[in-house]
């Protein structure tokens, strides 16, 4: 992949009832050339609309891919990948950093009735996860608009080192910095720490 190819990465940070989402435009060469921020509701159902709004606000038609840190930010506020892919008109890849048996048991513990049914319906229509090896690390990728092999190629192209694609690494740091600035916290922006996007598909 050419070094000038761009992707948008979206990651979150939250401490209160709202999660800060950051979108970072990053080239395959690791150059950052755009940021945008928004919020979604912890435990809500507005994450899909929020990420679509972020991409629209960036206005970066030159960014060929959208990478998301998992599919369930902000306590199971799901990104609906097929819907996002249709709305932003480019391939969408959700990257999780831990293997698991899935989110259904956790959803059944956290929700009931209509709230559970709605989240299960969204979760079950997401693309299948596929492992992607990155040197000594493995990530788990769902892709809408790309096949598994193409998705793996994109993830590897944007991960020059370590186990986190650069657009997601930058977005994660930006989200945490914004959360610290506007919400408050311990001030620690250590890139080595794990955040809410590191569980199974991003769910806590």
Automatic annotation (TrEMBL):
Q: Please, which domain of life does this record's source organism belong to?
A: Archaea
Q: Which InterPro entries match?
A: Endo_dU (IPR002802)
Provide ranges: composition bias, Acidic residues. 188-204
Q: Which family does it belong to?
A: Belongs to the UPF0215 family.
Query: Where is the region Disordered?
Result: 181-204
Q: What is the lineage of its organism?
A: Archaea, Methanobacteriati, Methanobacteriota, Stenosarchaea group, Halobacteria
Q: What is this protein called?
A: UPF0215 protein I7X12_08675
The family database entries (Pfam families) matched by this protein are listed as: Endo_dU
